Amino acid sequence: MPTDPEPNLTRYVDALSDAMAVAMDLDPKVFVFGLDVDDHRAIQGSTRGLVDRFGAERVFTTPLSEDAMTGVAIGAAMAGMRPVHVHIRMDFLMLCMNQLVNIAAKSHYMYGGAVRVPMVVRSIIGKSWGQGAQHSQALQSMFMHVPGLKVVAPSNAHDAKGCLIAAVEDNNPVIFIEHRLLYPTRADVPEGRYTVEFGKARVCARGDDITIVGISNMVMECLRAHELLTERGIDAEIVDPISLVPLDIDTIIASARRTRRLLVVDNAWMNCGASAEIVARVSEVLGEDGIKVRRMGFAQTTCPTSPWLENAFYPNPATIATAAHAMVKPDAADWTPDPERAKLAYQSEFRGPF
Amino acid sequence: MRRVYRSLRRLRRAEEVTAEIYPSDKIKSPVHLSIGQEAVTVGIVDTLMAEDYVAGSYRCHAAYIAKGGDLPAMYAEMYGKSTGCAKGRGGSMHLIETPHNIIGSSAVVGTHIPVAVGHALALKREGKGRLVAVFLGDGATEEGAFYESLNFASLHKLPVLFVCENNGFAIHTPLAKRWATRRLCERVETFGIPAVRIGDGDVFAIRDAATDAAKAIRNGQGPQFIECETYRWREHVGPGEDYDDGYRERADQAPWVKNDQVARLAGMLGARERDSIDAEIEAEIAAAVDFAENSPEPEPEELWDNVYAD
Q1: Owning domain of residue B91
Q2: What is the pTM of this model?
Q3: Which of A66, A95, B114, B222 has the highest CB neighbour number within 10 Å of its CB?
Q4: In a domain, B308, yes or no
Q5: Count of domains observed in chain B
Q6: Residue B204 falls within a domain, yes or no?
Q7: Distances from the Cα of A122 to the Cαs of A16, A89, A176, A246, B226, in angstroms?
Q8: What was the pLDDT predicted at A129?
Q9: Cβ contact (<8 Å) for A79 and B145?
């Protein structure tokens, strides 16, 4: 039997199921539902053990009726329960948009504060192994656009657990965005209940030369880029916003004011995206100071399935480091790190199929 | 009888008064009046318990009033005042009142149906025998969420009474241009949900059907469905009549006027009793309108209240 290389660290996927168990244990009003949450695969392990522990009334699968099931979650939430609605891919949230945008986001406001909608929508972004056009979308900006929703995208196991418990305890609808490739990544995860506060960014690495904001799994890629840049004598500051609504823009502004350079790397398209929002808000404050800004994200194409095409679709540590280098040293010769050294273990680990 | 008449008459007059006020432009809100359709609401709500929930569509005034919703707060809401049931954020199409278990109504057709089913899920878990009555129009039965909701409610035997107020039009488009067949109850029955159709708008027939349905629901038999044919006397939205618009004719309305349940029950009461009820209603409505007229306008800063819950 192979020994666990990191026995004291917890996987992202296990942090999620742990968070659910903690939240359900603390509050009998919490329930989790969605297609396959109670089956033997347990949403790739993220709902593992819940049905055995909490029973079929609190952990149950649903028909393929994303629209109505979202409405059911909203209604149950208004009636005092705390539903967690799980979607195995974020792309299916398109079927929930009517309820999420027209009802969940608006009810507290539209009904003058008479009701609250404390619900969590868990959804997983896919990547690679041919996930392609309809299994890899990262649609955070669509939800950021609408007042009344909160949007969080934790990038590591510690924040996944703390954010999920915070999301369940929040009295608003929370779009909880996970990334499939982060599931096997590990972090130090405390036992029991703790929360990671929304609206408070984390500075993951200190540096004075450039501020790089990474969103969701792009935090991992930015941290690898940070290592590569260090070898070139560039100190990058890496910021993880953790929650996109509310957004801790002050931490990003403070960092960019010091470094004079801001690169925002989203795991999504840039048009009207989170990267556009962050750059715009920083520019409104620091624009007259002449700071340098740049964005990176998905190519503005549909996501292809061929690995060779897909490699060109996503930002990666090499392209991030290259861009940051060009911003910090515009007069130096172009530099691109060795692609082999830019690869991340968590990417090659994923062998599908889902 | 007295109670049913009072409820019918109250709905009719509250809506007529709204229509009378409307040309003054004091109600800057798209009103979808229930005039002509009162018997459906009253027949259903009269059998409910105070602890039960109701949910309505954007044509929601009737369910709100019949279930006991605060009348001054309804007019204030339509006037856009801070004292409205939604503090002036919802208007005519988004009435709500939590003390009387009136679920917030919704303007996007059919969206309130799964929300009502979600309440029913919570009530089933609660286990106290409460139910949800959800009113929906014939147009809402064309939405996917309607069928998704029927299936889920039946699968989990949820305590919900679906009531279709079939007035024959989606805005101005008649059923014949929208439904492949008229067999709505059959469609619903395939989900394992007992369904009855009441074609003549008789308030007592509706109440009897609702009484049976509520009993079955409280016995744990799962959701029930009632289709009530009815007729909208006024335009789809707004205070007026529209029989000269070309999409329907005055003659279509005639049998429903002849069969008007408000007039029918008025005729079943003695004049003195009826007059006393009518006078009470007029005074109540006048006071409610007065409350709305004299309520304060919201301050601009209130715009930012309740975006997020604490």
Answers
A1: 2-296
A2: 0.96
A3: B114
A4: no
A5: 1
A6: yes
A7: 10, 9, 5, 17, 36
A8: 87
A9: no
